Amino acid sequence: MYKNKTEGVILTTDMSSRETRPQNGTDFQCHELQKIVGGHFELVRLMGGHYMVVNEDGHSLGLPYNLFATQYLRQFGMEHQGEPILGDVLICHKDAIR
Protein backbone atom coordinates (compact mmCIF):
# COMPACT_ATOMS: atom_id res chain seq x y z
CA MET A 1 0.00 0.00 0.00
CA TYR A 2 2.89 2.36 0.73
CA LYS A 3 6.05 2.97 -1.23
CA ASN A 4 7.83 4.37 1.81
CA LYS A 5 7.25 5.43 5.40
CA THR A 6 6.42 9.03 4.51
CA GLU A 7 3.36 8.25 2.42
CA GLY A 8 -0.19 7.65 3.51
CA VAL A 9 -3.52 6.61 2.08
CA ILE A 10 -6.79 8.44 2.63
CA LEU A 11 -9.86 6.17 2.77
CA THR A 12 -13.01 8.15 2.14
CA THR A 13 -16.64 7.50 3.00
CA ASP A 14 -17.48 7.09 -0.70
CA MET A 15 -15.24 3.97 -0.81
CA SER A 16 -12.42 5.67 -2.72
CA SER A 17 -8.78 5.95 -1.71
CA ARG A 18 -5.90 8.18 -2.68
CA GLU A 19 -2.25 8.39 -1.78
CA THR A 20 -0.96 11.46 -0.01
CA ARG A 21 2.33 12.80 1.29
CA PRO A 22 3.12 15.23 4.10
CA GLN A 23 3.54 18.82 2.96
CA ASN A 24 7.08 18.94 4.35
CA GLY A 25 7.98 15.61 2.73
CA THR A 26 8.80 13.80 5.99
CA ASP A 27 5.91 13.75 8.47
CA PHE A 28 2.29 14.81 8.78
CA GLN A 29 1.74 17.84 11.00
CA CYS A 30 -1.24 18.28 13.32
CA HIS A 31 -3.02 20.76 11.01
CA GLU A 32 -2.70 18.34 8.06
CA LEU A 33 -4.21 15.47 10.05
CA GLN A 34 -7.07 17.69 11.22
CA LYS A 35 -7.78 18.77 7.65
CA ILE A 36 -7.86 15.16 6.39
CA VAL A 37 -10.27 13.89 9.06
CA GLY A 38 -12.26 17.11 9.45
CA GLY A 39 -11.44 18.02 13.05
CA HIS A 40 -9.86 16.66 16.19
CA PHE A 41 -8.25 13.29 15.64
CA GLU A 42 -7.20 10.17 17.44
CA LEU A 43 -4.72 7.49 16.43
CA VAL A 44 -5.75 3.84 16.18
CA ARG A 45 -2.92 1.31 16.11
CA LEU A 46 -2.71 -1.10 13.21
CA MET A 47 -0.38 -4.00 12.49
CA GLY A 48 3.07 -3.38 11.06
CA GLY A 49 3.73 -0.08 12.81
CA HIS A 50 0.89 1.77 11.08
CA TYR A 51 -1.86 4.02 12.41
CA MET A 52 -5.31 4.92 11.27
CA VAL A 53 -6.02 8.59 11.97
CA VAL A 54 -9.73 9.08 12.64
CA ASN A 55 -11.99 11.93 13.69
CA GLU A 56 -12.47 11.53 17.44
CA ASP A 57 -15.82 13.35 17.34
CA GLY A 58 -17.27 11.46 14.37
CA HIS A 59 -20.41 10.35 16.24
CA SER A 60 -21.30 13.72 17.72
CA LEU A 61 -20.60 15.46 14.39
CA GLY A 62 -22.83 13.00 12.53
CA LEU A 63 -20.10 12.03 10.06
CA PRO A 64 -21.02 9.36 7.50
CA TYR A 65 -20.12 5.71 7.98
CA ASN A 66 -16.84 4.65 6.38
CA LEU A 67 -17.31 1.01 5.38
CA PHE A 68 -13.86 0.73 3.76
CA ALA A 69 -12.05 2.01 6.89
CA THR A 70 -14.19 -0.09 9.24
CA GLN A 71 -13.40 -3.27 7.30
CA TYR A 72 -9.72 -2.35 7.13
CA LEU A 73 -9.61 -1.82 10.90
CA ARG A 74 -11.32 -5.14 11.60
CA GLN A 75 -8.72 -6.92 9.46
CA PHE A 76 -5.55 -5.06 10.49
CA GLY A 77 -6.34 -3.51 13.88
CA MET A 78 -4.20 -4.45 16.89
CA GLU A 79 -7.24 -4.94 19.11
CA HIS A 80 -10.86 -5.78 18.43
CA GLN A 81 -12.58 -2.56 17.43
CA GLY A 82 -16.34 -2.69 17.87
CA GLU A 83 -17.14 0.89 16.92
CA PRO A 84 -17.71 1.72 13.25
CA ILE A 85 -15.39 4.28 11.67
CA LEU A 86 -17.04 7.55 10.67
CA GLY A 87 -15.65 10.10 8.25
CA ASP A 88 -12.53 10.07 6.10
CA VAL A 89 -9.36 8.56 7.59
CA LEU A 90 -5.64 8.49 6.93
CA ILE A 91 -3.56 5.33 7.17
CA CYS A 92 0.17 5.85 7.48
CA HIS A 93 3.30 4.51 9.13
CA LYS A 94 3.98 5.66 12.68
CA ASP A 95 7.16 7.40 11.49
CA ALA A 96 5.07 9.70 9.27
CA ILE A 97 3.38 11.28 12.34
CA ARG A 98 5.22 13.66 14.66
Radius of gyration: 12 Å
Order of neighbouring strands in the sheet with most strands: 2-1-5-4-3
- Proportion of beta-strand residues: 15-25%
Low-confidence stretches: none
Number of helices: 3
Structural class: alpha+beta
**SSE string, helix = H, strand = E?**
EEHEEHHE
Give the helix level as a range of percent. 10-25%
Instruction: Choose one word for the global shape.
Output: globular
| Mean pLDDT across every amino acid position | 91
The rounded distance between the terminal residues' Cα atoms is 21 Å
Number of structural domains:
1
Q: How many DSSP-defined strands? A: 5
Q: How many strands, which pairing sense, and closed or not: the largest β-sheet?
A: 5 strands, antiparallel
In short:
The protein has three helices and five strands, in the order E-E-H-E-E-H-H-E.
